[in-house]
Amino acid sequence: MSVSTAAPSPAAGLPLASRLAAFRTEGLPVFPILILVVLVFTAVFAEFIAPHNPEVGSLSQRFKPPAWVAGGSAEHWLGTDHIGRDVLSRLIFGTRVSMIVGFTAVIFAGVLGTALGILSGFFGGWVDQVIMRITDAWLALPALTFAIFLAAIVGPSEWNIVIILGAVYWTRYARVIRGEVLSLKERDFVRLAIVAGCSRWKIMRKHLLPNVLNSAIVLGTLMLGVVIVTEAALSFLGVGVPPPKPAWGLMLADGKKGLMAGYWWLTVFPGVCIVLMVLSANLLGDWLRVKLDPQLRQL
Amino acid sequence: MKRFVLRRLGYAALSLVLLSVTIFLFVRVTGDPTVLLVEPGASRADIDALRHDLGLDRSLLVQYGTFLKDIVRGDFGRSFYYRTPVLELYLSRLPNSLLLALAAMAFSLIIGIPSGILAAVRVNSWWDSGGKIFALLGLSMPSFWVGLLLILFFSVYLGWLPSSGSGTLWHVLMPAFALGWYFAAAHMRLTRSSMLEVLGSEYVKLARLKGLPEALVISKHAFKNALIPVMTLAGINLVLMVNVAIVVETVFAWPGIGRLIYEGISFRDFPVVQATVLMNGAMVIVVSLVVDILYAVVDPRIRYER
Question: Does the beta carbon of A240 lie under 8 angstroms from any beta carbon of chain B?
């Protein structure tokens, strides 16, 4: 018996082209998209763009100011840090670290939270009770403190951070997705699929997942900013990305060493990078929210 | 109402259990806790003695029982670095944390509420757009970076404010601003949307129809009701501030709980880290419980939900 013909779900059947066509570009937020594209490009081609090795410096070149300030040189456009490493190169490679950590953590949290949300909403009953009680309990924990605690125990590493951030931030997905599934479950196409004898697995995968994907993407974009700030905070505290890897939060921590001496470039530039990235993610997320998912507008 | 309170108590208890189990398990699963709990530079015999003392050869369940029993008794162990009971240390830092949180809260409300009202009253105007930009920046600029910029400007260049430490009013200003910054944006957003909702309500329309001057409508009728959700959020945020302050306190060397956690991590002073995280988590859970129950007392609709 062919079940998918029996109950076509609204979003699943459409080919990608028509989905894209329906996705009007009016009011497209040019600024955040432009910045994100530039950042992704920087992250991918860091080796070719960066003028210097980000992890090696020369002590004779310590605390050089940016090129346009007296004492600076074109050799180091944005100056050098406390062990003579090129700030621009570290920022460029730092983009890669932030992108990798940010995206993988958001995806990890998204997959975990969406899966649990679908399971919880679809099965209901005690499955729902157990998953939602755990979600609520988890939501009650202070995220940053908890992340710092976990990071302090497992030790600093990029991948530990990804797992920790994913483990801390999956709850929002689970809550929202569960709510959506609850209302989807009452819709005709899902009821039909159940009546038609569709397996539970197939209903969840073919009928529910495609219809909650929009919300998951919106949430993911909005979470990206949160995750990147948290990663920067962890790195700043020394429990995030381990040195000498160039991460923006770590650069801010290093920059603090030259702060009182007035070496402003070590503090200003990494922060600007973080803000640009987070701001773009938030702007894009706000736009997507209005565009993809009117239900989420009040969030 | 009774059922609601009981259920809510149950959830809070569950959260507490989950918090303690996670902390308990993480310490034991990710490695040998004696390595974390023993002081740096301890001998082999010391480690073995400690392992026996901690009862790590017994089953996890028994261990968890002892762990809980110690917590209930208020015994969180002894700090390696300060050589005092952790609880004492925590309580000695708590006033500083609360002071900072209160100052940051005052700041965030002073900025957030008027700008939120202004944005709502002059909706879709220049003021509103300005407010939106402020809210976006507030949510996008990490508090510790704001703190570093403040130090750079007010301490290094202008030399007006002390860059670290505590003691005088001047010391509180910059950390409170850095910490309150994010929350000011959140409070502004909520004030705006809540004010807009109230301004669209029937009783505000009536007040306007009666011919009350607009200033009076806003200050007397709309403002008070719009403030309820903002105050609730502020209550929860106050506790969150104590938690989020870790990074800001580190930046300004502010001797609060956040700084204590940071020191605990840097000195590998594990009992301190474990206890402070546990206490902070418990504080958030208990306060959100109290807020929920108070809210249900005020607004009966909430009790009957779900």
Answer: no
Nearest CA to B34 out of B271, B239, B226 is that of B271
Give the torsion sign (CA, B137, B138, B142, B144). positive
- Write the pLDDT tens digit of every residue in B154-187: 887 887 877 777 777 788 888 888 889 888 988 8
Whole-structure pTM value: 0.82
Q: How far apart are CA A5 and CA A55, in angstroms?
A: 57
In angstroms, rounded to a whole number, what is the distance separating the alpha carbons of residues B185 and B137?
Answer: 8
Chain A to chain B, count of Cβ pairs less than 8 Å apart? 133
Q: Has residue A167 got a pLDDT over 80?
A: yes
Minimal C-alpha gap between A202 and chain B (Å) = 29
3-class secondary structure per residue, B31-95: CCHHHHHCCCCCCHHHHHHHHHHHCCCCCHHHHHHHHHHHHHCCCCCECCCCCCEHHHHHHHHHH
C-alpha A151/C-alpha A160 separation (Å) is: 7
Distance, in Å, from the CA atom of A235 to the CA atom of B247, rounded to the nearest integer, reads 11
Query: What amino acid is encoded at A68 in this protein?
Result: W
Alpha carbon of A139: minimum distance to chain B alpha carbons (Å): 9
pLDDT-derived band at A198, boundaries 50, 70, 90? confident
Query: Rounded to whole angstroms, how far apart are CA atoms B123 and A291?
Result: 22
